[in-house]
Design goal:
- The complex is a heterodimer of chains A (390) and B (905).
- Chain A has six helices and 26 strands.
- The longest helix of chain A has 14 residues.
- The relative contact order of chain A is 0.16.
- Chain B is 8% helix and 53% strand.
- Chain B contains nine helices and 57 strands.
- Chain B has a 22-stranded antiparallel barrel. In chain B, strands 6-12-11-8-9 form a five-stranded mixed beta sheet.
- The longest helix of chain B has 14 residues.
- Chain B is elongated, with a radius of gyration of 31 Å.
- The two termini of chain B are 36 Å apart.
- The N terminus of chain B is likely disordered.
- The chains are: A mainly beta (390), B mainly beta (905).
């Protein structure tokens, strides 16, 4: 009897029950707008990204808001509309907004209207230097340095865009379409064999000099990668955009970073509320985001392969031989995963060499667009001397 | 039946009386006797209503007359040497006092066979019928002060918190920590009623002539012999001066059903209004919107930092050694300080001065033992208690598949008290306490914590008017977490706090209407905030240590209890507290006006050993007043301010074996609170006591934590905290039926505790700087505790509690920002877990009541959480296959039967 009781008690004590919990949501996650970006004063365009919060119990992915109307307003009733460029990205024209007005953002999305607070533009100091160094363990790290001689900026945020040239290991001179092989045009081959992938930073990069004697940031690390990375196969460019941050926005970003590093679990610490300077004026919908106006500074740095030429970027690609009978119903299936590189000819028949097969490689070995997309060649990209693509 | 006892007055000439009454009421008989002699007759009028007596006596002694008169009736009499005559119905009274003088052979032979208990009852009954003359001769004064000590007749222990009320008067008093009381009464005859929990209510008739002393002995309400009385400070709520005091004695506590049947002093406190907890397995309780670190927990003058075992399932006090638990939640006496919300005084018993006794209890998970007795009869006594769990053995029996086969959980606690009565006026007491906890909960990490306390006190009555208490104590609390399963990463994390206390506390009767209490106290703290050490030779753990910190908290206090009129009294006190943060330590300096982060540290300053780093000080006001509108209805008000210089750093909701304590320093300010409260107390329907108390409390500099705050092994904790302002308010309603076959109480509390970030340099805010509920904000709280006696041996207890679910902060969605997924949280504490409801039931079966039995046994059978409700303890979220899912976790989410066996010898 007593032992039974003991068992019962202990099992009960320890078999703590876990049941699914779904809180009654006061907000539909999909209704919460996320606004990212800033109002760019001076040269350059304003780029605002709109998206929606996704519910917890769904696989997380970007949920862009593509049907919004985004307008910059100044305190003198001036309005400047942004255009939707796809995927929830809205861009302005080159507006050259002046420093004498305050600006805010008006967003219409869903059935709601949102307004950010008016902010006085802040002038972002110049970037001193974007530098790269190679460490002993062959890691390339790129850093930024800046300073404000006026001692009034203190909070900085950076974004960067990397563009590099990459080339397919093989050229696919043949295509196989509608059951028929065909020789590709020069432009076609070129588009498949040279790519200029672009990549934006995926972290929030910011720093503060508030505790320092001078308002200067020295060698803030932006990114790093190994020397053997594909980015250094030919040529690499990084364009760093620097802007000042209001302290409020700095804190907004800091809390967002801290909140996302854990999940508010049993032993985890308490998350904090994100402050925002954007309000929904038509209802009490939550908004995530902080919009202020700044001038921005840019600096671009190139790294050529020749500067790290003791390393070569190589792709693991091997060539196979595919003997074909044209019209073989299996052929298109073979060619789903591969691209023909060159034709293999058999004995001449009627003075013409007979196509009896192809050398083939994996698709990504002959078409860089598969991995890197088909971004156009940037305007600033100048052909290298040894560029033999042409 | 005629004669109860002969009481010839030897060595004294007997007065002979002539009485002739026929079918006359007692009044006539009394008049006839008193007119011819110096005898004074005492009796209860109600006992003699409608009784008629016939006596014819010519020059006969009084005994003859009374024998004649009471022949064939149920009346008895007793005559004492002072020619006082006590007339009783049904009760035969005799006293030690009398028999010492009256060498009566037949009495002596009888008494040898009667037990101490019976004899004590007789003494008590006699004293109830005596008239005590206070003051040698009439002083001519209108009013005089009666003071004295109230003690247990069987153990000689002082009775704390006994309530004294005076018939037909608003005058009342309660005994202090050493059982002393003081009453100011008009000259003349009064009937004083003395009540205390666990003691039989007694009465004294006094004739007040001048200031004087009356010591009162009370007979304990032995549960084995008497009906169970669940009562909490009967009447003192109406007449006592203190407000916001909750006192539970161990008898009451034992009848409140608890998890696993262990009488639990702290869990029992949760049934009184204004006291809450965030969940079953949580180490701590919240009083009137206070945090868990704002309670000063004193066990025999020792500060207990962690009063719970096994992460809060059991309180770490052995119920066998406890006398009572007292909680001050609004008017805190000026002699206490250092915590904002409450003082919880757990008073252990003194060892029995007369004979060796023991008691033991066997429960489902724990067993406890208590031994006490005289070392030198009536001079020195000891009491020792111990408790342990056999859960490790139990874990071994658990099937493999439960996943807890390898769990370990062990704890024990032990306490000892040595009491030496130097003389009637001077007592020395030494107390020791220790508790240990160790568990791993099936993980690689062993969590352990321990309390070690020793205290000594000397209480002395210097004069009739001056009474002093001197305390020295040393308290230690530590925890250590270690993992040795992987030698490469074997580590041990340790935290420890040491404090040395001294205190002197005096009570001085300045004037009949003024009682002063004053004293000084000082605490020296020494904290090791953390050491992190490798625990094997191969371990790659880098040894780390956070620099120790030291502080001295001193206070001087004075308090005057002023009885302006019998109906109106006030208690005004002031405590001046002073805190010195001392070296040796390196203190971080921060850039002014910007959020404190590691990046804004501008430098450090080194301080030498005992060098003064920072001083905080300030007065604390303690004011309270009582006005008795009628005998049965009073109104009380109080205003209190308090300061707290030590903070518990706890970032998690509840269970955490890694909560550390931190002293105020140049970067962390002391907490401050002020509380206003108002209460109405009255008796309704004769047997019920009703009370309403409302309060409003402001708290400043209460610490909350920044997002992702790291508190363990952090050398700059100030960067992780921000100060908040607290606003707590509430109304507490209680109806209590202190006695009868059905007794218990019902209480309802509406209360809120809201916090608001009040830190210009926090760098972040919570809920946009608006007020948000604290994680222990539970607005509605209902409790019903009932005990129904069926027979003398059988009673049933029922406990029901309901409260609003605790607030939690939960993730409400995911969004992309800067190209990466981020979690969106609700407002801080913007959601609540489902409401809490629990009903427990217990049956208490006493062994038989034979007084002479060598051993007294009792059984408790109970069902904890009768409805089996899965009360969520916490909710948590976890990412599973890129989907974030929420779960609620309930502990003790089913009916738990238990059994407990207790015996006394």
């Amino acid at each position: 009897m007593k032992q039974t009781l003991l068992f019962v008690a202990i099992l009960v004590l320890l078999s703590t029950c876990r049941e699914k919990f779904e809180a009654e949501q006061a907000y539909q996650p999909g209704s919460i707008l996320v606004v990212e970006g800033f109002i760019n004063v001076g040269p350059g365009i304003t780029r605002i990204k709109l998206s929606r919060v996704t519910p917890l119990n769904a696989i997380s992915k970007l949920n862009p808001e593509t049907a919004g109307i985004v307008v910059i307003e100044d305190d003198a009733d001036g309005t400047y509309a942004l255009q939707h460029r796809g995927n929830g990205v809205y861009e302005s024209a080159e507006l050259n907004l002046d420093l004498d007005h305050e600006y805010r953002l008006r967003i219409e999305a869903g059935d709601e209207t949102y307004l950010s607070d008016f902010t006085e533009p802040r002038v972002t100091p110049l970037i001193d230097e974007v530098a790269w160094t190679r460490s002993q363990d062959d890691e390339i790290s790129i850093t930024v340095s800046t300073r404000d001689p006026q001692n009034e900026t203190f909070y900085y945020k950076w974004e960067y865009e990397e563009i590099w040239e990459t080339r397919s290991a093989y050229r696919s001179s043949w295509a196989y379409e509608n059951g028929m092989p065909r020789i590709r045009t020069g432009d076609e081959v070129k588009a498949m064999s040279v790519c200029w992938p672009r990549r934006q930073n995926r972290d929030i990069l910011m720093a503060s000099s508030a505790a320092l004697v001078t308002d200067a940031i020295s060698k803030f690390p932006l990114t790093s990668f190994p020397v053997s990375d594909s980015r250094l196969g030919w040529r690499y460019s990084i364009t760093v955009t620097q802007r000042a941050l209001q302290r409020d926005e700095f804190e907004f970003l800091q809390v967002m970073e801290r909140n996302s590093s854990d999940l508010g679990g049993f032993f985890d610490s308490q998350p904090s509320q994100l402050l925002s300077n954007i309000q929904c004026i038509t209802s009490d919908q939550l908004v995530v985001g902080f919009i202020a106006s700044y001038t921005s500074q840019k600096k671009q740095v190139f790294i050529k392969h020749s500067q790290v030429s003791d390393f070569d970027y190589t792709t693991p690609c091997s060539v196979d031989v595919l003997e074909v009978l044209l019209g073989d119903p299996q052929l298109p299936i073979y060619l789903e995963q591969a691209l023909p590189v060159d034709a293999i000819y058999g004995p001449f028949i009627d003075d013409a060499p007979q196509l009896i097969g192809f050398t083939i490689v994996a698709k990504s070995c002959a078409d860089c667009r598969i991995v890197y997309g088909s971004e156009p060649k940037p305007d600033f990209w100048v052909a290298e001397d040894n560029d033999d693509v042409e | 039946m005629t004669v109860g006892c002969f009481s010839p007055i030897l060595g004294q000439q007997q007065t002979l009386l002539t009485v002739n009454v026929n079918q006359a009421p007692l009044k006539d008989l009394v008049q006839a006797i008193e007119s011819q002699s110096n005898y004074r007759l005492y009796f209860r009028e109600s006992d003699f209503e409608n009784a008629l007596f016939t006596v014819t006596a010519e020059r006969k002694p009084l005994s003859y007359i009374l024998d004649e008169a009471f022949k064939n009736t149920s009346y008895h009499y007793a005559i004492d040497p002072e020619q006082n005559v006590f007339l009783t119905r049904d009760v035969v009274i005799t006293t030690q006092l009398l028999s010492d003088m009256i060498d009566s052979p037949n009495n002596t032979s009888n008494r040898e066979n009667i037990s101490d208990d019976e004899e004590n009852s007789r003494i008590a009954a006699l004293n109830e019928r005596r008239v005590f003359t206070i003051g040698a001769r009439p002083s001519g004064k209108q009013r005089a002060v009666v003071s004295g000590t109230i003690k247990s007749i069987s153990t000689g222990e002082p009775i704390i918190g006994a309530a004294l009320t005076v018939q037909n008067s608003a005058v009342g008093a309660a005994t202090d920590e050493s059982g002393k009381y003081k009453l100011e009464l008009p000259a003349g005859r009064h009937l004083i009623t003395i009540r205390s929990i666990g003691m039989k209510t007694t009465q004294r008739t006094v004739v007040v002539q001048a200031d004087g002393r009356l010591d009162i002995e009370m007979v304990s309400e032995s549960a084995n012999l008497k009906e169970v009385v669940v009562t909490s400070d009967r009447e003192s709520h109406v007449k006592g001066l203190q407000m916001g005091v909750e006192k539970l004695d161990i008898q009451t506590i034992k009848y409140i059903p608890s998890s696993f049947g262990e009488a639990d002093v702290l869990k029992a406190m949760l049934t009184v209004p204004g006291v809450k907890t965030v969940g079953e397995a949580s180490s701590g309780f919240n009083v009137r919107g206070g945090a868990t670190d704002q309670n000063l927990i004193l066990f025999n003058n020792s500060t207990i930092y962690n009063p719970f075992h096994f992460f809060g399932f059991f309180s770490s006090f052995n119920s066998e050694s406890i006398k009572s638990v007292e909680l001050f939640k609004s008017a805190i006496p000026s002699s206490y300080g250092g915590r904002l919300s409450s003082v919880l005084k757990v008073d252990g018993r003194q060892g029995d001065m007369k004979k060796i006794k023991g008691s033991a209890g066997i429960g489902v998970l724990t067993s406890r033992l208590n031994l006490e007795g005289p070392i030198w009869k009536d001079k020195i006594s000891f009491l020792a208690g111990a408790r342990t769990t056999y859960s490790n053995w139990v874990f071994g029996l658990v099937p493999e598949r439960s996943g807890f086969k390898n769990s370990k959980a062990s704890f024990f606690d032990a306490n000892a008290t040595l009491t030496a009565k130097l003389n009637e006026k001077s007592i020395i007491q030494v107390n020791g306490y220790m508790s240990n906890d160790e568990s791993n909960l099936n993980t690689d990490t062993t969590y352990s914590y321990a309390n070690r306390n020793i205290s000594a006190s000397w209480t002395n009555e210097f004069t009739d008017k001056l009474y002093g208490e001197f305390i020295a104590a040393f308290d230690h609390y530590e925890y250590g977490n270690k993992s040795v399963s992987d030698p490469q990463y074997a580590y041990e994390l340790k935290f420890a706090i040491n404090q040395t206390n001294v205190k002197a506390n005096f009570t001085y009767e300045l004037h009949p209407a003024h009682t002063l209490q004053f004293g000084v106290s000082s605490i020296y703290y020494s904290i090791n905030p953390g050491t992190y050490l490798p625990l094997s030779n191969e371990s790659v753990i880098r040894p780390d240590r956070v620099e120790p910190e030291h502080g001295l908290e001193s206070a001087i206090f004075i308090e005057d209890q002023f009885e302006i009129t019998p109906k109106l009294s006030v208690n005004g006190g002031i405590r001046y507290s002073l805190f010195n943060y001392l070296g040796a330590r390196t203190v971080n300096q921060y850039a002014p006006g910007v959020p404190r982060t590691e990046e804004t540290i501008t430098g450090t300053v080194d301080y030498g050993k005992n060098e003064l780093i920072k001083t905080y000080s300030g007065p604390e006001v303690r004011l309270s007043a009582r006005y008795s509108i009628t005998d049965d209805f009073s109104i009380k008000a109080s205003y209190n301010t308090l300061r707290q210089y030590i903070h518990m750093l706890s970032n998690t909701v509840a269970i955490s074996p890694t909560d550390t304590w931190k002293l105020s320093d140049p970067n962390i300010k002391p907490q401050f609170s002020q509380q206003y409260s108002l209460g109405l107390y009255g008796k309704v329907l004769k047997t019920l006591e009703a009370s309403v108390e409302v309060y409003k409390k402001d708290i400043n500099n209460y610490l909350d934590y920044k997002s992702g705050a790291v508190l363990i092994m952090n050398k700059h904790v100030e960067t992780e905290v921000m100060t908040t302002k607290g606003n707590a308010y509430g109304a507490e309603f209680m109806i209590k039926k202190p006695s009868g076959k059905l007794n218990g109480w019902i209480s309802y509390t509406y209360s809120r505790i809201l916090l608001k970030v009040d830190d210009p340099i926090a760098g972040e805010s919570i809920n946009r700087g608006e007020y948000y509920p604290a994680s222990y904000d539970k607005p509605h709280d209902f409790n019903l505790t009932l005990n129904q006696k069926i027979t003398r041996r059988l009673s049933f207890s029922l406990n029901t509690s309901y409260s609003t679910g605790r607030p939690v902060t939960i993730p409400i969605g995911v969004f992309y920002y800067g190209g990466a997924p981020k979690t969106l949280y609700s407002d801080r504490n913007g959601y609540r877990i489902p409401d809490y409801f629990r009903m427990d039931f217990a049956a208490n079966i006493e062994g038989n009541h034979k007084v002479k039995q060598w051993i007294h046994t009792s059984w408790t059978f109970g069902l904890y959480n009768l409805t089996g409700r899965k009360n969520p303890y916490s909710v948590y979220y976890t990412s599973e296959n890129r989907v974030i899912n929420g779960y609620k976790l309930s502990i003790l989410g089913t009916v738990i039967p238990y059994v407990n066996f207790n015996f006394k010898f």
